[in-house]
Design a protein that fits this description.
Blueprint: H1 8-30, H2 33-56, E1 61-62, H3 64-85, H4 92-108, E2 112-113, H5 121-154, H6 165-198, H7 206-228, H8 232-263
Antiparallel strand pairs: 1-2
Length: 266
Protein backbone atom coordinates (compact mmCIF):
# COMPACT_ATOMS: atom_id res chain seq x y z
CA UNK A 1 0.00 0.00 0.00
CA UNK A 2 1.30 3.48 -0.89
CA UNK A 3 1.85 5.68 2.14
CA UNK A 4 0.77 9.34 2.00
CA UNK A 5 3.41 12.05 1.76
CA UNK A 6 3.45 15.80 2.06
CA UNK A 7 2.00 18.17 -0.52
CA UNK A 8 4.33 19.81 -3.10
CA UNK A 9 4.58 22.95 -0.94
CA UNK A 10 5.17 20.78 2.12
CA UNK A 11 8.03 19.02 0.34
CA UNK A 12 9.47 22.36 -0.80
CA UNK A 13 9.46 23.67 2.76
CA UNK A 14 10.96 20.41 4.05
CA UNK A 15 13.77 20.43 1.49
CA UNK A 16 14.51 24.11 2.10
CA UNK A 17 14.61 23.44 5.86
CA UNK A 18 16.92 20.43 5.44
CA UNK A 19 19.29 22.45 3.26
CA UNK A 20 19.27 25.31 5.78
CA UNK A 21 20.09 22.88 8.59
CA UNK A 22 22.99 21.40 6.63
CA UNK A 23 24.30 24.91 5.95
CA UNK A 24 24.05 25.74 9.67
CA UNK A 25 26.00 22.58 10.53
CA UNK A 26 28.74 23.58 8.09
CA UNK A 27 28.66 27.19 9.27
CA UNK A 28 29.33 26.05 12.82
CA UNK A 29 32.90 25.08 11.94
CA UNK A 30 33.71 27.42 9.06
CA UNK A 31 32.12 30.76 9.92
CA UNK A 32 31.88 33.08 12.89
CA UNK A 33 29.60 32.38 15.83
CA UNK A 34 27.12 35.09 14.79
CA UNK A 35 26.95 33.77 11.22
CA UNK A 36 26.38 30.22 12.45
CA UNK A 37 23.64 31.49 14.74
CA UNK A 38 21.89 33.33 11.91
CA UNK A 39 22.05 30.20 9.74
CA UNK A 40 20.50 28.15 12.53
CA UNK A 41 17.76 30.73 13.12
CA UNK A 42 16.93 30.68 9.39
CA UNK A 43 16.64 26.88 9.50
CA UNK A 44 14.53 27.11 12.66
CA UNK A 45 12.13 29.60 11.03
CA UNK A 46 11.75 27.40 7.94
CA UNK A 47 11.20 24.40 10.17
CA UNK A 48 8.45 26.26 12.01
CA UNK A 49 6.83 27.17 8.69
CA UNK A 50 6.96 23.51 7.65
CA UNK A 51 5.25 22.44 10.88
CA UNK A 52 2.61 25.18 10.54
CA UNK A 53 1.85 24.13 6.96
CA UNK A 54 1.37 20.53 8.06
CA UNK A 55 -1.10 21.59 10.77
CA UNK A 56 -2.94 24.43 9.04
CA UNK A 57 -2.39 23.97 5.30
CA UNK A 58 -4.87 22.93 2.64
CA UNK A 59 -4.92 19.36 4.01
CA UNK A 60 -3.84 19.43 7.69
CA UNK A 61 -2.20 16.22 8.92
CA UNK A 62 -0.59 15.04 12.14
CA UNK A 63 1.22 11.86 13.15
CA UNK A 64 4.30 10.33 14.71
CA UNK A 65 6.72 12.15 12.39
CA UNK A 66 4.96 15.47 13.00
CA UNK A 67 5.39 14.94 16.75
CA UNK A 68 9.09 14.21 16.27
CA UNK A 69 9.45 17.28 14.05
CA UNK A 70 7.90 19.48 16.74
CA UNK A 71 10.18 17.88 19.31
CA UNK A 72 13.26 18.72 17.22
CA UNK A 73 11.98 22.28 16.73
CA UNK A 74 11.55 22.72 20.49
CA UNK A 75 15.04 21.35 21.07
CA UNK A 76 16.35 24.12 18.82
CA UNK A 77 14.42 26.66 20.88
CA UNK A 78 16.10 25.34 24.04
CA UNK A 79 19.51 25.41 22.35
CA UNK A 80 19.11 28.99 21.05
CA UNK A 81 18.06 30.20 24.50
CA UNK A 82 20.79 28.20 26.23
CA UNK A 83 23.47 29.65 23.95
CA UNK A 84 22.63 33.09 25.32
CA UNK A 85 23.84 31.94 28.76
CA UNK A 86 26.46 29.40 27.67
CA UNK A 87 27.95 30.63 24.36
CA UNK A 88 30.69 28.00 24.60
CA UNK A 89 28.17 25.15 24.20
CA UNK A 90 28.97 23.12 21.08
CA UNK A 91 26.07 20.98 19.87
CA UNK A 92 25.16 22.77 16.65
CA UNK A 93 26.18 20.08 14.18
CA UNK A 94 24.32 17.34 16.07
CA UNK A 95 21.08 19.31 16.34
CA UNK A 96 21.32 20.59 12.75
CA UNK A 97 21.79 17.15 11.20
CA UNK A 98 19.07 15.72 13.46
CA UNK A 99 16.70 18.51 12.40
CA UNK A 100 17.45 17.94 8.71
CA UNK A 101 16.73 14.21 8.99
CA UNK A 102 13.52 14.60 11.01
CA UNK A 103 12.00 17.29 8.80
CA UNK A 104 12.43 15.02 5.76
CA UNK A 105 10.89 12.10 7.64
CA UNK A 106 7.94 14.33 8.54
CA UNK A 107 7.47 15.18 4.85
CA UNK A 108 7.57 11.50 3.93
CA UNK A 109 5.12 10.49 6.68
CA UNK A 110 2.76 13.45 7.28
CA UNK A 111 0.34 11.35 9.33
CA UNK A 112 -3.44 11.23 9.24
CA UNK A 113 -5.86 14.07 8.41
CA UNK A 114 -6.86 16.25 11.33
CA UNK A 115 -10.56 16.22 12.10
CA UNK A 116 -12.75 18.33 14.33
CA UNK A 117 -11.59 18.17 17.93
CA UNK A 118 -13.73 15.97 20.14
CA UNK A 119 -12.74 17.73 23.36
CA UNK A 120 -11.52 21.20 24.35
CA UNK A 121 -8.89 19.44 26.48
CA UNK A 122 -7.27 17.78 23.47
CA UNK A 123 -5.20 20.79 22.23
CA UNK A 124 -3.88 21.36 25.78
CA UNK A 125 -3.10 17.68 26.19
CA UNK A 126 -1.22 17.51 22.87
CA UNK A 127 0.65 20.77 23.51
CA UNK A 128 1.81 19.61 26.93
CA UNK A 129 2.78 16.21 25.53
CA UNK A 130 4.92 17.69 22.76
CA UNK A 131 6.48 20.13 25.24
CA UNK A 132 7.48 17.23 27.51
CA UNK A 133 8.96 15.45 24.48
CA UNK A 134 11.05 18.54 23.71
CA UNK A 135 12.32 18.95 27.27
CA UNK A 136 13.27 15.31 27.67
CA UNK A 137 14.89 15.30 24.22
CA UNK A 138 17.02 18.26 25.33
CA UNK A 139 17.90 16.31 28.48
CA UNK A 140 18.96 13.30 26.39
CA UNK A 141 21.18 15.47 24.17
CA UNK A 142 22.83 17.00 27.25
CA UNK A 143 23.30 13.55 28.80
CA UNK A 144 24.97 12.38 25.58
CA UNK A 145 27.26 15.41 25.64
CA UNK A 146 27.98 14.74 29.30
CA UNK A 147 28.98 11.15 28.55
CA UNK A 148 31.26 12.23 25.70
CA UNK A 149 32.83 14.93 27.86
CA UNK A 150 33.51 12.45 30.67
CA UNK A 151 35.25 10.09 28.24
CA UNK A 152 37.41 12.89 26.88
CA UNK A 153 38.36 14.02 30.38
CA UNK A 154 39.56 10.50 31.17
CA UNK A 155 41.73 10.70 28.05
CA UNK A 156 43.08 14.09 29.18
CA UNK A 157 41.52 15.74 26.10
CA UNK A 158 39.47 18.91 25.71
CA UNK A 159 35.72 18.77 26.26
CA UNK A 160 33.96 18.18 22.89
CA UNK A 161 30.92 20.11 24.12
CA UNK A 162 32.87 23.16 25.26
CA UNK A 163 31.21 22.91 28.69
CA UNK A 164 32.45 21.74 32.11
CA UNK A 165 31.17 18.30 33.09
CA UNK A 166 29.39 19.46 36.25
CA UNK A 167 27.63 22.23 34.34
CA UNK A 168 26.38 19.75 31.76
CA UNK A 169 25.14 17.46 34.52
CA UNK A 170 23.31 20.29 36.23
CA UNK A 171 21.67 21.38 32.96
CA UNK A 172 20.70 17.79 32.14
CA UNK A 173 18.75 17.38 35.33
CA UNK A 174 17.16 20.80 35.05
CA UNK A 175 15.69 19.65 31.75
CA UNK A 176 14.64 16.34 33.34
CA UNK A 177 12.91 18.18 36.19
CA UNK A 178 11.11 20.57 33.84
CA UNK A 179 10.12 17.68 31.57
CA UNK A 180 8.79 15.71 34.55
CA UNK A 181 6.62 18.65 35.65
CA UNK A 182 5.19 19.06 32.14
CA UNK A 183 4.68 15.29 31.75
CA UNK A 184 2.74 15.27 35.02
CA UNK A 185 0.54 18.07 33.70
CA UNK A 186 0.11 16.10 30.45
CA UNK A 187 -1.16 13.05 32.32
CA UNK A 188 -3.56 15.19 34.38
CA UNK A 189 -4.90 16.83 31.20
CA UNK A 190 -5.21 13.37 29.65
CA UNK A 191 -7.25 12.28 32.65
CA UNK A 192 -9.82 15.03 32.01
CA UNK A 193 -9.65 14.44 28.27
CA UNK A 194 -10.44 10.74 28.77
CA UNK A 195 -13.40 11.62 30.99
CA UNK A 196 -14.95 13.71 28.20
CA UNK A 197 -14.10 11.43 25.26
CA UNK A 198 -14.49 7.93 26.70
CA UNK A 199 -16.82 8.53 29.62
CA UNK A 200 -14.21 7.34 32.11
CA UNK A 201 -11.17 9.09 33.49
CA UNK A 202 -8.51 6.67 32.30
CA UNK A 203 -8.14 4.18 29.47
CA UNK A 204 -5.38 1.59 29.93
CA UNK A 205 -4.18 1.37 26.36
CA UNK A 206 -0.56 1.06 25.21
CA UNK A 207 -0.11 4.84 25.15
CA UNK A 208 -1.27 5.19 28.75
CA UNK A 209 0.84 2.27 29.95
CA UNK A 210 4.06 3.57 28.38
CA UNK A 211 3.32 7.12 29.58
CA UNK A 212 2.84 5.99 33.18
CA UNK A 213 5.94 3.76 33.03
CA UNK A 214 8.02 6.70 31.76
CA UNK A 215 6.59 8.94 34.51
CA UNK A 216 7.52 6.36 37.15
CA UNK A 217 11.03 6.01 35.68
CA UNK A 218 11.66 9.75 35.76
CA UNK A 219 10.18 10.03 39.25
CA UNK A 220 12.54 7.32 40.53
CA UNK A 221 15.46 9.03 38.78
CA UNK A 222 14.73 12.42 40.38
CA UNK A 223 14.13 10.91 43.82
CA UNK A 224 17.31 8.85 43.53
CA UNK A 225 19.34 11.91 42.58
CA UNK A 226 17.81 14.04 45.35
CA UNK A 227 17.96 11.47 48.16
CA UNK A 228 20.88 9.23 47.20
CA UNK A 229 22.98 11.43 44.91
CA UNK A 230 22.58 9.26 41.79
CA UNK A 231 24.78 10.45 38.94
CA UNK A 232 27.03 9.20 36.17
CA UNK A 233 26.30 6.23 33.93
CA UNK A 234 23.52 4.75 36.08
CA UNK A 235 21.54 7.99 36.07
CA UNK A 236 22.10 8.50 32.33
CA UNK A 237 20.93 4.97 31.55
CA UNK A 238 17.76 5.54 33.55
CA UNK A 239 17.20 8.81 31.70
CA UNK A 240 17.56 6.99 28.38
CA UNK A 241 15.14 4.29 29.54
CA UNK A 242 12.51 6.84 30.57
CA UNK A 243 12.91 8.74 27.29
CA UNK A 244 12.56 5.51 25.30
CA UNK A 245 9.34 4.62 27.15
CA UNK A 246 7.97 8.10 26.52
CA UNK A 247 8.89 7.84 22.85
CA UNK A 248 6.98 4.56 22.60
CA UNK A 249 3.97 6.09 24.33
CA UNK A 250 2.92 8.30 21.42
CA UNK A 251 5.38 8.41 18.54
CA UNK A 252 6.08 4.69 18.71
CA UNK A 253 2.44 3.65 18.83
CA UNK A 254 1.50 6.05 16.05
CA UNK A 255 4.36 4.73 13.92
CA UNK A 256 2.96 1.22 14.28
CA UNK A 257 -0.55 2.36 13.31
CA UNK A 258 0.45 4.74 10.52
CA UNK A 259 3.25 2.75 8.88
CA UNK A 260 3.59 -0.88 9.94
CA UNK A 261 -0.12 -1.74 10.05
CA UNK A 262 -0.77 0.17 6.82
CA UNK A 263 1.98 -1.72 5.02
CA UNK A 264 0.63 -4.98 6.39
CA UNK A 265 -2.81 -4.07 5.05
CA UNK A 266 -4.43 -4.18 8.49
Amino acid sequence: MILPSASPLGWLLALATAVAYVISAIAGSRFSSSQARMALIAAWVLHGASIAWGLMGVSPHFGFASALSMTAWLMLVAYLVERQFFPQLRALWVLSLLGAAIVLIAALFPGKPLHALSSPWLPLHLTLGIASYGLFAAAVVHAWLMTRTEKQIRLAADSPSGMPLLTLERLTFRFVTAGFVVLTATLIAGWFFGEVLYGRAWVWDHKSVFSVLSWITFAVLLIGRSRFGWRGHSAVRMLYAGAALLLLAYAGSRFVMEVLLVRAGV
